[in-house]
TrEMBL record:
Protein name stated in the entry: Transcriptional regulatory protein ZraR
Transmembrane segments: none
Sigma-54 factor interaction domain residues: 144-373
Record SUPFAM superfamilies: CheY-like (SSF52172), Homeodomain-like (SSF46689), P-loop containing nucleoside triphosphate hydrolases (SSF52540)
Family matches, as InterPro entries: AAA+_ATPase, AAA_lid_NorR, CheY-like_superfamily, Homeodomain-like_sf, HTH_Fis, P-loop_NTPase, Sigma_54_int, Sigma_54_int_dom_ATP-bd_2
Keyword Transcription part of the UniProt annotation: yes
Species: Paraburkholderia haematera
Lineage: Bacteria, Pseudomonadati, Pseudomonadota, Betaproteobacteria, Burkholderiales
Keywords from the named record: ATP-binding, DNA-binding, Nucleotide-binding, Transcription, Transcription regulation
Gene name for this UniProt entry: zraR_3
Top-level division of the source organism's lineage: Bacteria
């Protein structure tokens, strides 16, 4: 998942008072050291973009007030910083925060040169592992991230329907990626170089539908001072995306149906029809079967729209993809953070799996973006995501779950057979020897029973 970049053996030693012995120790261990005496020197050394370890000698460079310059320095990318301090600097809360948020490690003096070189070597190694949350985007279909079975099936459906020209109906809860799916189908279809025109069906009042969708001729109505091409005609050769189709007012449904039946449009005020060549994709979060039953949606229109159907899985059914999407969002917006963020805390991950995500991917993106800005630590916590109520369930490994179940089964069998190991073993379908071994591996006490083996 993480891309490992070539490890360099280069150190930027930020100090106003370089120690010749320390320099010698670095060189002995084949490190190339660049001594920087000022923030400008550091910037110059960092500017060539190659990775390096960094050693900031706080006692010599921190003069008690120019915190901003120091911060700018250690926040530079591609350098794994280690702070070296003689401790008094740590009395300063701002210094402590700087070290906590930006440095990989620190060394308090006195310390051996070997320890300092080792620590810097480790920091340099860490930075060469890449940003901690680098997401492997091979899991993406274009802009769509996903790796779980449901998403792989979705990607396959997208590829299949893209080669066809029949209308596609995309169904899914709000924020699941219906619009992304529609755009992905268009982008993979032969129409990809022609326009993709999205129309929000719920937002057009019935009396404007005709002119919005199909346009009008000059003089068609008061104020129509020139001809205007409608949205459908504007998509000629491409795809029309009828978003929120379930919210299309009933009064508007007949004219849409007429268009779908004939593939022709009549501009308002015109007396001829124009043939347009568009592919129709529609989407909604509305339960269409229920809408038809309630008489809110015409069944004939629905059947025209839903020749091919794609169902977007809700986020809560995407398993590990929840983490993948969270990491992807962190990667994408991490520059909004005031400090380097190293990913999500285990509590945050547990909470993300517990939570129901009624707003699906959109909600996840919003929560992570807010957390990036609000986070005070090195990792995003459940609290930052405003999901602390969902941490309560401690994540259980499968091994731990098996162990607990095994122990419980043994305890119950022993209870039932009043401690007779032979009978308990028989019930559990294991040998006595295995039962002894399990009892001792679980640290359970047992009395050697006399009645057991006959
Ligand atoms: N698989 C995904 N990978 C990356 N980003 C995604 C994915 N799915 C959705 N998103 C993002 O989530 C947000 C919501 O997606 P989109 O607008 O396509 O959802 P929708 O189903 O149309 O929502 P609504 O019902 O509210 O209109 C967008 O910012 C989109 O980029
Ligand atoms: Mg949408």
């Amino acid at each position: 998942m993480h891309k490992i970049k070539a490890i360099t053996r280069r150190v930027i030693y930020f100090t106003r008072d370089p120690s010749p012995e320390l320099l010698a120790s670095f060189e002995e261990r084949d490190w190339e050291v660049e001594v920087a005496g000022s923030v400008r020197d550091v910037r110059q050394a960092v500017d060539d973009g190659s990775l390096a370890g960094g050693l900031v000698d706080l006692s010599s460079v921190f003069d008690g007030h120019d915190m901003a310059a120091l911060e700018a320095c250690v926040a530079m990318p591609n350098v794994g910083w280690v702070a070296m301090t003689a401790a008094p600097e740590f009395d300063d809360a701002a210094v402590r925060r700087l070290v906590r948020d930006y440095c990989f490690d620190y060394v308090t003096l006195p310390a051996t040169n070997a320890r300092i070189v080792d620590t810097v070597g480790h920091a340099c190694g860490m930075i060469s592992l890449g940003e901690p949350a680098l997401v492997d985007t091979s899991a993406a279909e274009g802009e769509m991230i996903g790796n779980c079975d449901a998403m792989l099936a979705l990607f396959q459906s997208i590829r299949k329907v893209a080669t066809n020209d029949a209308p596609v109906f995309v169904s899914g809860e709000s924020g699941t990626g219906k619009e992304l799916t529609a755009a992905a189908i268009h982008a993979r279809s032969a129409r990809r170089d022609a326009p993709f025109v999205a129309i929000n069906c719920g937002a057009i009042p019935p009396h404007l539908l005709q002119s919005e969708l199909f346009g009008y001729e000059r003089g068609a109505f008061t104020g129509a001072s020139q001809r205007r091409i409608g949205r459908v005609e504007a998509a000629h050769g491409g795809t029309v995306f009828l978003d929120e189709i379930g919210d299309l007012p009933f009064e508007s449904q007949a004219s849409l149906l007429r268009f779908l039946q004939g593939s022709t449009i009549d501009r308002l005020g015109s007396n001829g029809s124009i043939k347009v060549d568009v592919r129709i994709i529609s989407a909604t979060h509305v339960d269409m079967e229920a809408a038809i039953e309630d008489g809110r949606f015409r069944a004939d229109l629905y059947h025209r729209l839903c020749v091919l159907r794609i169902d977007e899985p809700p986020l809560r059914a995407r398993g590990k993809d929840i983490e993948l999407l969270a990491l992807y969002t962190l990667d994408r917006y991490r520059k909004d953070a005031s400090r380097r963020l190293y990913g999500f805390s285990p509590g945050a991950i547990a909470a993300m799996h517990q939570y129901d995500w009624p707003g699906n991917v959109r909600e996840l993106i919003n929560r992570v973006r807010r957390a990036i800005v609000m986070s005070e630590g090195r990792t995003i916590s459940a609290d930052d995501l405003e999901l602390s109520a969902y941490v309560a369930v401690v994540p259980v490994t499968l091994a731990r779950a098996r162990e607990t179940a095994e122990r419980q089964a043994i305890e119950l069998a022993l209870l039932r057979h009043r401690g007779r190991l032979g009978d308990a073993a028989r019930e559990l379908s294991i040998s006595r020897t295995t039962l002894y071994r399990l009892l001792s591996s679980h640290g359970m006490r047992y009395e050697q029973d006399s009645t057991a083996e006959r």
